[in-house]
Amino acid sequence: MTDPALEAIDLTRRYQLEGVSVEALRGVTLRIDQGEFAAIIGPSGSGKSTLMHLLGCLDRPSSGQLRVNGVEMSGLSDTELAELRNRTIGFVFQSFHLLARTSALENVALPLVYRGMGKAERRERARAALEAVGLAHRLDHRPSQMSGGEQQRVAIARALVGEPTVLLADEPTGNLDTRNGAEVMAMLDRLNSDSGVAIVLVTHEPEIAAHARRQIHVRDGLIELDTSTPSPAPHPETNPHPKSAHPKPTTHPERAHSEGGDAESGRPEGDHPERDRPEVDHSERDHSERGASFGTGGSETGDRSREEGR
User: Fold this and answer.
1) Rounded mean pLDDT of 26-32?
2) How far is CA 25 from CA 18, 56, 113, in A?
3) What is the mean pLDDT of the chain?
4) Maximum Cα–Cα distance for the chain, whole Å?
5) Where is the composition biased (Basic and acidic residues) (predicted)?
6) Which of 60, 115, 235, 242 is most buried, judging by how many CB atoms fall within 10 Å of its CB?
């Protein structure tokens, strides 16, 4: 029996901020199968990005279990965790995280440096990855010489160059206009269908989530709804804003509607904990995202110096 790409069991994540305990996740159980295309959707403060960082092994849960391709992460050292990320997980973030003074080819090849791969082989694989996303003509261009859509395609090529089993995309169209956003989503659709890589997309936009065959709704640190559609969403090139006709969603028991409560979320009237939470400082998270984009947990400065030294 094939292990799922990702499996989370009763994950929690708590932060201590100025003496206040903030529960970003309050017990999430989730399974992502090999080759699946799922979207995690929720409003700001719902816990969706925290969940994505845990699934990507960029952070450790306060409690619960997480398995990546059947490997339990709790017993792994930081070094072993970085190696697991490098070989099995690709990351695409809203902010691209490309090295400004480095060509597209070198940006894409960078994760392979940490595998000890020779320069010729990693350049060949990076070239193939860029060709796969339609950027064969941009190999030697720097990020400042490319459009936002092209930069995100470079980031997607970098995420896929190591042939991961799962790709995590956190708001991948957030910095793009409608046309470029539609092109990026069309590319993710094709990559999922053609290569079989599992994709987990994090977004707050229903029309973006509709591209996935499964939508996982997160609110207040819990999975509120988990729905699926029987077939892929309409192709974005023919309908950039698809209106998916979702089947009736299944409500999870822990989010059952309470009498007299909010009809949508099941909360008692006036109870909106996500509005009352202290704001979390994401500077450390941004640092982790940058390192993960390059195939390690290090800083951008360290990554550039290592690449230039090879």
Assistant:
1) 96
2) 19, 15, 34
3) 81
4) 65
5) 251-290, 301-310
6) 242
The DSSP bridge pattern shows strands 214-219 and 222-228 to be: antiparallel
Token pair for 19? 């003496």
161 to each of 109, 165, 279, 304, how far by Cα in Å?
Answer: 7, 11, 35, 18
Q: Model's pTM, two decimal places?
A: 0.74
Indicate the DSSP class of residue 270. T
Confidence of residue 2 (pLDDT cuts 50, 70, 90): confident
> Which are the contacts of 120, defined by CB distance < 8 A and separation ≥ 6?
none
The residue count of the chain comes to 310
What span, in angstroms and rounded, lies between the C-alpha atoms of 271 and 280?
A: 20
Q: Give CA–CA dist 310/300, Å, rounded.
A: 16
* pLDDT at 228 (0 to 100): 72
- Confidence class for position 1, pLDDT limits 50, 70, 90: confident
Q: Residue 177, Cβ neighbours under 10 Å: how many?
A: 11
The CA distance from 176 to 74, in Å, is: 36
Q: Is the pLDDT assigned to residue 242 strictly greater than 90?
A: no
Rounded CA gap, 170 and 208, in Å?
A: 12
Distance CA 106, CA 126 (A): 8
What is the CA 257 to chain-centroid distance, rounded? 30
Strand 63-68 with 6-17, pairing: antiparallel
CA 294 to CA 162: how far, in whole Å?
Answer: 11
Residues in a beta bridge with 166: 89, 198
Average pLDDT over residues 126-136: 95
Q: Please report the domains of the chain, with CATH numbers, ordered by start residue.
A: 34-53+86-308 (3.40.50.300)
Q: Is 224 in contact with 217 (CB distance < 8 Å)? A: yes
Residue 168's identity, in one-letter code, is: L
In this predicted structure, what is the pLDDT of residue 189? 94
